Each structure stands twice: as C-alpha cells, then as structure tokens.
Amino acid sequence: MSSVAEFWTVVVLAFGFFICSSTLGFFKGHSRALSNGWALSLVAFELAILVVVAWIGHVRGWSLRKLGLQPSWRLTGAGVLLWVATNVILGATYAVVSATMGRIPDPAITAGTLSFWAVVLVSLVNPVFEETLVVGYVVEKTSAHGAVFAITASALLRFLYHTYQGPIAAVYILPLGLIFAAVYVHYRALWALIVAHAIMNLIGLGRLLHPS
Fold it and tell me: How far apart (Å, rounded) are the C-alpha atoms in residues 202 and 196?
C-alpha cells in the first residue's frame, strides 16, 4: 500500500461515516436528541477504528510516540491552558461575527436520555480518537507539503464532520481546528490537545444535561 493509499484509507475509515451523516444532518436541519445508546455506539466505533489504525501503524512502522502522544503532568497543565486560550479566542470570534452578522443560532441538540456517565465515557474516548487522527495523523502525513497545508487540511477535515451543527461550526469548529493543528505543528504535544478537547466535551455535553 502506498503512502497516499494508506492516508485515504485511514481518513475514510475514521471520518467517512461522520462526514456523510454530518452533511445529511446539515441539510435536514432537524433537532437531535442524544442518548446513552448514541454514546455507547460512538465510543465502540471510535475504539474499533483506533484498533484498526493502530494495526495499520504497526505494519507501516509508525508509533504513537512519533505523533506526540506522551501523557505527563506538564502537558496536562498545558492542555488546561490551551482550553482557556481557545475559549478566549473562540469567544472573541463569536462576538465579532455576531456583531457584524447578527446572532448565530445554536445547533438544535438536546441531551435526550443521555446520562452523566455516558458524557464522561464520550469525553474520555472521543478526544483521543479525534486528536490522534485528525491532528496527529493528518498533520504528520501532510506536513511534507508545508505547515500551512497540514494545518489547513486538519482544520477542514474537522469542520467537515461537524457541519451538522450548522453555521456556528464555521465560527467555532474551523478556528478551533486551526488553533489545535497550529499548536501541534509547533510543539508536537498531542496530549495537551486531548486534555483541552476532553474539558470541552465535559463542559459542552454537561450543559446539555443541565441547560440554563
């Protein structure tokens, strides 16, 4: 298998379904109620894909260490700081866009039958899945074309499987993807991204459980 074939195999396996379902969700525009079944299905799918990708990586000779997945207290703290900095930037972006274009509607997503423990499970697995693949893997495989290309490719891929959120995805997800990919390109510290993403998931899904 060529390097290009490997890249597209991994991308389609990991994100093909999410991109298709997200695109359908964008055009349908109906509300979405989450559930424990949704959470368990998501986690099971992502774990299965991680196993397959890990096998491909083993055969191809690359490692998680090369992707920068090395947990440490220092990088955990860096992840918290990254979460804070990203929130500030995204908040400012939202304020500017809202001031110039009017209020952007939130995605019609509710907690449904989702439980706290399902939220915790998704918040533990999903950040590892996304950041390892959409940032670590994609950036490493496209970096030969330059840092700008790699950062843009990672951010656009993340945006594509979040389009179900509607216009707000362009305000939050696209800048977030650019920030995370740029941080990774500079520091090669995947664990910090995973920590920041996990905090975002916990808070975002937690707010659905207890809407104000």
Answer: 10
Residues 6+ apart with CB under 8 A from 144: none
Q: Would you say residue 135 has pLDDT above 80?
A: yes
* Amino acid at residue number 43: V
Express as a percent the part of the chain with pLDDT over 70: 97
Sequence length of the chain is 212
What is the Cα–Cα distance from 75 to 11, expressed in whole angstroms? 27
The first and second tokens of residue 113, run together, are 């039958």
Give the up-direction half-sphere exposure of residue 138: CA atoms within 13 A in the CB hemisphere. 29
- Amino acid making up residue 58: H
Region 165-192 average pLDDT: 93
> Is the pTM for the entire model greater than 0.90?
yes
The H-or-E segment that residue 185 falls in is: helix 168-187
> Is the torsion defined by CA of 163, 165, 166, 168 positive or negative?
negative
* Closest of 197, 204, 175 to residue 82, by C-alpha: 197
Dihedral angle sign, alpha carbons of residues 28, 121, 105, 92: negative
Q: Buried b / exposed e across 20-56, counting CB within 10 Å, b at 16+?
A: eebeebbeeeeeeebeeebbeebbeebeebbeebeee
9, 1 Cβ separation under 8 angstroms: yes
Full residue range of the structural domain in which residue 181 is found: 3-62+71-209
The tokens describing 77, both together, are: 């703290």
DSSP 210: S
Domain count along the chain: 1
